[in-house]
Amino acid sequence: MLTYLTSGESHGPQLTAVIDGFPAGLTLDIDKLNFQLARRQKGYGRGGRMKIEQDQVRIVSGVRSGHTMGGPITFVILNRDWTNWERIMHPVNDMPDDLSPREKKLAYDTTCPRPGHADLPGAVKWNHHDMRNVLERASARETAARVALGALARQLLEHFGVTIASHVVRIGPVAIEAGYDISDLEQVVSITEASEVRCLNKITGDRMIDAIDAARETGDSLGGIAEVIIRGLPIGLGGFSQWYNRLDGRLAGALMAVHSVKGVEIGLGFEMASCRGSEVHDRLFYNQQGDRKRKRFYRKTNNAGGIEGGITNGEDITVRVAAKPISTLNQPLETVDVISKEPAMAMVERSDNCVVPTLAVICEAVAALVLTEAFLEKFGSDNLAEIERNYRSFLDSEF
To answer: Percent of the chain, pLDDT > 90?
Structure first.
């Protein structure tokens, strides 16, 4: 069973990620891990924090001479901004009396919860009147750890010919027109990596940038929609015997657990609700000349988004994720001071004003973790050689 945990505060010394159940024998490319972390730091709409951090993975356990050993793998990502917060966020030492005005603001101006954030619910749940104790762990800084773990999972999937890509469909009021082409994933990757907003259409991308700028000028934020595409998975991952086996549920649940995400749809998603079955169900065809590349059975459409009955059907998995606007606003909303119980304006933290391009990268990583778990459930998880044998045998025997 593949499991993982992350730990660390946004302005603490480091983030730590531990993954257990990962097979032995995979040659690990640390440059690819760091490449994914660098992708996460890009994107139009990011805040000043990204000018400070230069995320790099330090491998602490589970890997020897570049090869996974089968035990728990531990990654550490240092927070370079820690040097600016050490007197406030030290795990052991009390805060000193000689805090600077800046440090005092960061340390004590934490009693006015932001609407839309975890501040108030977290404070009530854990009895924190200092919401710094909530917002530090609730911060999306944590996703750097998940991206590192997802980059590891991605290397295993890539070993078996799986490709993962993403692009931004909408930012605020600006959306790409329907009918965009994702048939060539290499081209999708090439275009989106060159776009500051990860949009497949340059004109639409420029309009997205304008929308982000307009929101920033008024102290506001924007949400949007990103789409992730996973190509090359075989038929048969997931299950339907129990509710928790269903791959679409597992995928949606993991993606809903990404910061700011408020909705997930697979394939045609919510649009299916307004259609007849004859209009949306993907007709089946069989290729007599099909080879072991899992394309004996195929479909000419993919409204199901690659999953039927909780199981992969061999087509691309396509999933869209909708994110709300960031809840930290430079023109803050009305709130209540939890100490005085008087009306107040919400506290303002350094923040992005649009994270949708980054969200796409994070969701790639989260999807990779879910799909790797399902892959290992199907083909074994002890060592790479065993998984390769089981995988080849399955493809050869597919009826």
So the answer is: 84
Q: Which residues contact 113 (CB under 8 A, 6 or more apart)?
A: 119, 120, 123, 131, 335, 336, 338, 346, 347
Q: How confident is the model at residue 289 (pLDDT cuts 50, 70, 90)?
A: confident
Would you place residue 295 in the very low, low, confident or very high pLDDT band (cuts 50, 70, 90)? low
As a whole number, mean pLDDT of residues 23-45 equals: 96
Are 353 and 326 spatial neighbours (Cβ–Cβ below 8 Å)? Answer: yes
Distance CA 304, CA 298 (A): 12
Distances (CA, A) of 56 to 14, 32, 34, 76, 216: 11, 11, 6, 8, 29
For the stretch 225-237, pLDDT in tens is: 999 999 999 999 9
Closest CA to 36 of 138, 116, 172, 154: 154
One-letter amino acid for residue 238 of the chain? G
Give the closest residue to 122 by CA, choosing from 9, 250, 224, 40.
9
- Predicted TM-score (pTM) of the model is 0.95
**80 contact partners, CB below 8 Å, separation of at least 6:** 52, 53, 54
CA distance 219 to 330: 4
| CA atoms of 120 and 116, how far apart (whole Å) | 9
User: How buried is residue 128: exposed, middle or buried, by Cβ count under 10 Å (0-12/13-18/19+)?
Assistant: middle
Which comes out higher in pLDDT, residue 137 or 107?
137
**192-222: per-residue pLDDT in tens?**
999 999 999 999 999 999 999 999 999 999 9
Give the residues across from 24 on adjacent strands: 383
Q: For the domain 3-397, what is the CATH code?
A: 3.60.150.10
Domain boundaries, the chain: 3-397
DSSP symbols for 241-304: SSGGG-HHHHHHHHHHTSTTEEEEEETTGGGGGGS-HHHHSPPEEE-TT--TTT-SEEES--TT
Distance CA 48, CA 82 (A): 14
Which residues 6+ apart lie within 8 Å of 224 measured at CB? 168, 169, 170, 171, 172, 208, 322, 323, 354, 356, 359
DSSP codes, 89-136? H-SSSPPPS---HHHHHHHH---SPPTTSSHHHHHHHHT-SSTHHHHH
